[in-house]
Design a protein that fits this description.
Structural class: alpha/beta
Order of helices and strands: EEEEHEHEHEHEHHEHEHEHEHEHEEH
Oligomer: single chain
Strand content: 15-25%
Shape: globular
Length: 373
């Protein structure tokens, strides 16, 4: 079912003017509290001048935090898939034609087929996520479609959840909780439900961008022997500031007691963690992934856990999502699986919705987005 918000009156959107210096926004609603809105360098004012009707935006579900939808309703006509789950593919294809922008999430595949169906009116794709592997960036670039996303705002929430998942896995919290409920808790025992401590361990972080660095900062008080990381770029200054070490990928996987995946998903990282990698890890290694499920070859992970090549895994992301209830991962006591909730705190998700909407409004007016791919 779709809800369509009609304008109360047909009016000209006059929130932008064009002069010799480019596109200058009049509307303060497009301004982030700490970000100065600037014209897009090299953009054609002709593409973004005055609207003689409200821009049309397709929203792929109805349970995005209201702040974003309310911002859009002020200046756009919204067509919303009126359910609290991702819009079915056939419904998406049927209703995207003629839209000026799309408000989407990582569940929505924005590929050539959908862009063809949307047609030449589509100017903006804005996703309420830091990852954008669900969007065909190359196709969007070729069509002049701008892409908004939401990095930075979810960094702290994701880092917090990553540390929580690491602790839950290494200290066997979910396993112990089950014993409370099923009668397995008989009495105190000196070796029962013992896990591994972070203190005096070697923690390896694969990917040392914003989230990886914040995870490292939060782990320092746990007094690990060493925090090491692998990154595509030289992070010597950052490493020195934090007191951590940059090492090769080979050294990271062979010497770490805990391996935390914090990298982005791309062609270089897809299925990178496979059987050959697991075979080189310590049998005591615990793997944590809060990035993307596709970075880990899941069948190989299952085999590694069953064969004792690694000790345990904590996963906030899987392939597919959600996992089938008969997945072997859900039958293992040494695996903690969460339903992709790394950024799931109220404040973060609310701000993500606001930024997604502001990216759309800024893009439609030809000014700088808060965050653009």
């Amino acid at each position: 079912m779709n809800i369509f918000f009609r304008p109360r009156i047909l009016r000209t959107v006059s929130n932008v003017i064009v002069n010799s210096s480019g596109v200058i926004p009049r509307s303060p609603s497009l301004r982030s509290p700490d970000t100065e809105v600037q014209p897009v360098v090299g953009s054609s004012p002709r593409s973004y001048c005055y609207f003689n009707m409200k821009p049309r935006v397709y929203v792929t579900r109805n349970d995005y935090p209201r702040i974003g939808l309310d911002l859009l309703k002020e200046e756009c006509d919204l067509s919303i898939w009126d359910e609290g789950y991702p819009v079915p593919r056939d419904e998406f294809l049927k209703n995207v034609a003629g839209k000026d922008a799309i408000f989407c999430s990582l569940n929505d595949r924005i590929d050539k087929e959908l862009l063809d169906q949307a047609g030449p009116s589509l100017k903006i794709v804005s996703t309420i996520s830091v990852g954008f592997d669900h969007i065909d960036v190359k196709q969007c670039r070729e069509r002049g479609i701008r892409i908004g996303y939401t990095p930075d705002v979810l960094t702290d929430a994701t880092a917090e959840l990553t540390v929580a998942l690491l602790l839950a896995t290494t200290r066997r919290l979910f396993e112990a909780n089950k014993e409370v409920h099923n009668g397995g808790w008989k009495s105190w025992s000196p070796t029962w439900m013992c896990g591994s401590s972070i203190k005096n361990s070697v923690v390896g972080i694969f990917g040392f961008g914003r989230i990886g660095q914040e995870v490292a900062k939060r782990l320092i008080p746990f007094k690990p022997l060493q925090i090491q990381f692998t990154s595509r770029t030289d992070k010597c200054i950052t490493a020195d500031e934090l007191g951590v070490s940059q090492v090769s990928f080979d050294e990271l996987i062979e010497t770490s007691d805990f391996i935390i995946i914090c990298c982005s998903y791309n062609t270089q990282t897809a299925n990178l963690f496979n059987d050959s990698v697991f075979s080189r890890m310590k049998p005591s290694t615990i793997l944590v992934n809060t990035s993307r499920g596709g970075i880990v070859e899941q069948h190989d992970l299952i085999h590694a856990l069953k064969a004792g090549k690694i000790r345990a895994a904590g996963l906030d992301v899987t392939t597919p999502e959600p996992l089938p209830l008969d997945s072997p991962l859900l039958q293992m006591n040494n695996v903690v699986v969460l339903p992709h909730i790394a950024s799931a705190d109220v404040e973060t998700r609310t701000e993500m919705s606001r930024i997604t909407a502001c990216n759309i409004l800024a893009g439609l007016k030809g000014v700088k987005m808060i965050s653009e791919v």
